[in-house]
Amino acid sequence: KPVFPSQVMEAIASVLQKSHPPEGRLLIVDDDPQVLDIIRTLLEPWGFTLTLLDDPRQFWDTLEKSAPDMLILDVEMPNFSGIDLCQVVRNEPRWSNLPILCLSAHTDAQTVQQVFAVGADDYVNKPIFGPELVARVLCRLERSQITRKLANIDPLTGIYNRRKSLQDITRLLHLAERQGKSFYFAVLDLDHFKQINDQYGHDIGDQVLSELGKLFKQSFRDEDVVARWGGEEFVIGLYGITSKNALKRLNNLLETVSQLQFSGINHPTFSITFSAGIAEYPKDGHDVQMLYRAADAALYQAKAAGRNQIFL
Ligand code: GH3
Ligand code: MG
Ligand code: MG
Ligand code: MG
Ligand code: MG
Asked: Which residues form the GGDEF domain (predicted)?
């Protein structure tokens, strides 16, 4: 009995009560083009980016190129079975967290157990029951997106953490190289923050960090990198702008920050400043590590020169 996508969508949407399904890229490998067609019909309406492959020998290339958020693998295929592919993927640390769903016409205990033994996360029987496949894919992608988001966010400030900023900066550096664009990397360190903690308490210190983190994030474009590097240190990555503008943006931010009034409990209001060093790609370095070192050296100079200033 055919299942129409609109019916599937309605059915699943009412169950999950989701107005925004998770986004994602899926790689689907099945030697039967008819099955690929059915899966396309089921998943396309959800807005996923689909890569369909009927030859498992091209799997590795396709995996690298399509960089999927989830894999759907048929178990019974010539040359390489879904079990083989699953094993290979799990042996590669880069793909160790990639959600994998296996499809098989075999429902015997041995097949099902083997699927999970080689590292698959889920299993769906053939012939495919449309709503089941859709529901399993949606839930799996949503779970992994929540996990990924949590892993990238600094809990105190709610902005990105060092881990995520390293990924984003690396991506922007590749882009800057390919497109011949500029990239500026700034390290910001709050001035005399130990005194703030000593004077007003650690909780107030935390509040200051949280407010400043959010302000930093708001003060730049979506394509810029803004992250808490650790402690009272933040990093900002600016893509495709002039050195003059990079400096201006950071000086504007410093101006805004220094005019903020914070209030401690039973204390008069206080204000805070930061110092920053900026490094320029590729002049000061080609990778994050070199750029960080250069920016940190400039930061040190800014501190030594009296704080509350930015050195490029
Ligand atoms: P400088 O101007 O030289 O940077 O002086 P500073 O006092 O800011 O520098 P220092 O590196 O000596 O101290 C940083 C302080 O930041 C010490 C630490 O207690 C505080 N700090 C780091 N992380 C946190 C945090 O998550 N919450 C709070 N409240 N304080 C933090
Ligand atoms: Mg097959
Ligand atoms: Mg510091
Ligand atoms: Mg310090
Ligand atoms: Mg400091």
From this structure: 181-312
